[in-house]
Design goal:
With 324 residues, the protein is mainly α. The chain has 15 helices and 2 strands. It is flat, with a radius of gyration of 25 Å.
Length: 324
């Protein structure tokens, strides 16, 4: 710790001596090849991620395509009020956050479980086949998945109602019963994404020193004890890191999934309508780009604040898991 503190003090003294600009130039010259390697990625981010941010200004304008950004009238926060003046905004925000929390928690639990299960499988060929099968659903588009879902939940001839009929139960009107859809959407989200998400956890497990497991085996630890006391604690930094990244999108509804499956089905809106689907319908009807930009800006800003908040909490609880 003393060595680290001395190095930090030395660095501060050098920065003061050279000045901020001088230290920046010195850093560029010292690691010029590394920065040259990163240059294409930095240019890509600047062009496609930072330059378009200038378009955020239309969220504060009554944007007219004919007048352009420079000629459109500035209206302040009026476009943001469009969303909050709606009678449905509390329900829509609740659905967005609630579904995302369910997706994050259950997807993470399933991904960790899959990673541990696949890692514990002995046969290499069986392990590869299992990995491929579990990752495959991620590459199916939600439009295709929606067709499968309709085959299962349709009232006339749906597989789920056929199974219920075998047990003498009455058919369920899934397409007009909103209370079932949070569960259906969570199951679909796990099926579609947990296998792909488990790749990160499998890579982390593969990086664990095998000597730790061998030492535990010599001490008589069972397989479940090794998972509980070695694998899961060493997975914790990765879990927290992915949690921080996931929290940043908690105000963004999974539009591709929900709109493909639910579509315009008003009876299901009480539990499935999220900010993105509501906004899409509103914009299709109103065609107002400024309102769309305002809500998108609000979602990004809240996501950014949440990432900073969770990262600060993680920095205090588990410093090795924080992003910065």
């Amino acid at each position: 710790m003393k060595i680290v503190a001395n190095a930090s003090d030395t660095r501060i003294r050098l920065v003061k001596k050279r000045g901020v600009v001088g230290s920046f130039v010195y850093e560029l010259i010292k690691n010029k090849f590394l920065y040259l390697l990163a240059l294409p990625g930095m240019i890509w981010f600047f062009i496609f991620a930072y330059l378009p941010m200038g378009g955020i200004v239309i969220a504060f304008q009554d944007f007219k395509a004919a007048k352009g950004i420079m000629g459109s009238e500035f209206v302040g926060l009026k476009n943001f009020m469009f969303f909050f003046q709606s009678n449905d905004w509390i329900r829509i925000v609740f659905n967005t956050v609630f579904l995302n929390i369910l997706f994050i928690i259950f997807n993470m639990i399933a991904a960790v479980a899959i990673a541990i299960m696949v890692t514990e499988i002995g046969g290499k060929r069986f392990k590869k086949i299992t990995q491929s099968v579990m990752i495959f659903p991620h590459f199916l588009s939600w439009t295709v998945v929606a067709m499968f879902v309709m085959a299962f939940v349709s009232t006339d001839g749906g597989y789920l109602n056929q199974i219920l009929a075998l047990f003498g139960a009455k058919p369920i009107q899934f397409l007009s019963s909103p209370e079932y859809w949070p569960v259906i959407l969570v199951v679909l989200n796990i099926w579609h994404g947990a296998g792909f998400s488990s790749i990160v956890y499998m890579a982390t497990i593969a990086g664990i020193n095998p000597d730790i497991y061998e030492s535990a085996s010599i001490d008589g630890a069972s397989r479940s004890q090794k998972i509980r006391f070695i694998t899961l604690p060493l997975l914790r930094p990765t879990i927290i890191l992915l949690l921080i990244l996931a929290v940043g999108g908690i105000f963004n509804g999974n539009f591709g999934m929900i709109y493909a499956i639910i579509g315009r089905n008003p009876p299901l809106y009480p539990t499935t309508d999220v900010i993105d689907t509501y906004l899409f319908r509103a914009m299709m009807d109103l065609g107002d780009m400024s309102m769309s930009a305002a809500i998108g800006f609000m979602q990004s800003l809240i996501g950014f604040i949440l990432v900073l908040t969770v990262n600060t909490i993680a920095k205090k609880a588990a410093p090795e898991s924080a992003i910065f």
